[in-house]
Every structure is written in C-alpha cells, then in structure tokens.
Design goal:
CATH class of the largest domain: Mainly Beta
Strand content: 25-35%
Strand order of the largest sheet: 4-3-6-8
Largest sheet: 4 strands, mixed
Order of helices and strands: HHEEEEEEEEEE
C-alpha cells in the first residue's frame, strides 16, 4: 500500500496520467507479491528503496500569460513626459497626472480619451493594434504627444 501511496503522490506532483497508470500497475504488482524491481523500481526513472517508478508524460509546456509591458508617461509642467514612445502591440501606457491643473489624454483620431484627470490621478490604455497614435490635452491643445505601436 505504501508503494501505491507514493506512486499516487508522484502522479499528483507530475500531473501525469502516465504516472497514475504506473501507480496502478505498481499496486497490482505489490498485491501479487512482486518485488519492487518487478514493478519497475530500480530501473531508469525508478527508486529501488521506495519501489516508486516515476514516469513523466512528454508534452508541450503551457506558457503562463504574461502581463503586458507598461510604459509610464507623466503629465507635468503642461507637457507629456516623454512626449513620444515606441512600444510593441499589446503594451499598456499609464498616464500619471502630476500637475495641479486638470488635463486629458485625447487621441486625435478619437480612438481613446481619458476624460478629466486631476492631480495624482492616472489612466491606462492598452494598445492592441499597430500604428501611430497622436494625442493632445483637450483643455490645452498645445500639449501634444505621440505613441508608436510596432508589431
């Protein structure tokens, strides 16, 4: 029974259906009176002391989702700092309002608009398509910036 429990633990750790199948055959061999070697221990991938044979099923690792890169643009002294950034598709830009005067981040083509941003507020936007995005402050139209999204 000890062999079965150890094999089951190995199956859970490996997350492998092959290890579960091995656990079942190890239990059957143990119940039939076989030695650990007959159940596969002591062979490559096995452990003669515990009677556990670890079998891993080959597969493609599943990548974990990566957070999108974040660029930070500060709004201070009536300017966007920096006023131009180039980032890859799927990136996020965070605008941080450092001025005492309210500002906006408004796309020239109308594709995004932060609305009113007061001091210490921030706003983020995820860019999902390649292209060049010009933006300005709706209250102070001389404040301008550009974001270039590359594939």
């Amino acid at each position: 029974m000890r062999i079965f429990v150890l094999s089951l633990v190995a199956a859970l750790v490996l997350g492998s259906g092959a290890a579960v199948a091995q656990a079942g055959s190890t239990l059957a061999a143990a119940q039939a009176g076989s030695t650990p070697a007959a159940a596969g221990a002591g062979s490559p991938g096995g452990d003669a002391a515990s009677g556990v044979r670890i079998v891993a099923q080959a597969g493609t690792p599943v990548p974990s989702p990566m957070p999108s890169p974040v660029s930070i643009i500060h709004i201070k002294n009536f300017a966007y700092v920096p006023d131009s950034v180039t980032i890859p598709v799927g990136s996020t830009v965070k605008f941080v309002e450092d001025d005492e005067t309210p500002h906006t981040v408004t796309a020239s083509d109308g594709s995004f608009d932060s609305g009113n941003l007061n001091q210490k507020q921030s706003w983020t936007h995820l860019f999902t398509k390649a292209g060049t995005y010009a933006y300005y402050c709706a209250y102070h139209t001389y404040m301008k910036g550009k974001i270039v999204i590359v594939p």
